[in-house]
Amino acid sequence: MPLNSLIKFSMQRLYEARDEIEAQMLMDYLASSHIQANIQGSYLKGAAGELMANHFPSVWVMLNEDMPRAQELLAQFLQRPRQEAWVCEKCHSEVDAGFGICWNCGAAREI
Ligand SMILES: [Zn+2]
User: Fold this and answer.
1) Which residues keep their CB under 5 angstroms from ion ligand 1?
2) Which fold has domain 3-80?
3) pTM score > 0.85 for this model?
4) What is the 3-state secondary structure (H, E, C) of 35-64?
5) Domain spans of the chain?
């Protein structure tokens, strides 16, 4: 079996996000706990090169063994207080209030 399909086979879908930004924030949140994830869907191309149907982006966890921890983190992610987003000084991306650094360029929040 090619390596590509092995990886695909072992990936598990964690969460369907409402947009790319939310999917990216969740992925960063997981990455800060050393869980590897990636985003599938929306405008991304499928493994075979076909364009995937127009559905919401979803976050997939790379390793089965990370799944229980990823689900805990997802619950925390969804429960975090909704505060006002801030705008990065450097690249002008809107960043969720729960994050101290910009998801786009990594700049620290200016207070
Ligand atoms: Zn930025």
Assistant:
1) 88, 90-91, 93, 102, 104-105, 107
2) Alpha-Beta Plaits (3.30.70)
3) no
4) CCEEEECCCCECCCCCECCCCCCEEEECCH
5) 3-80, 82-111
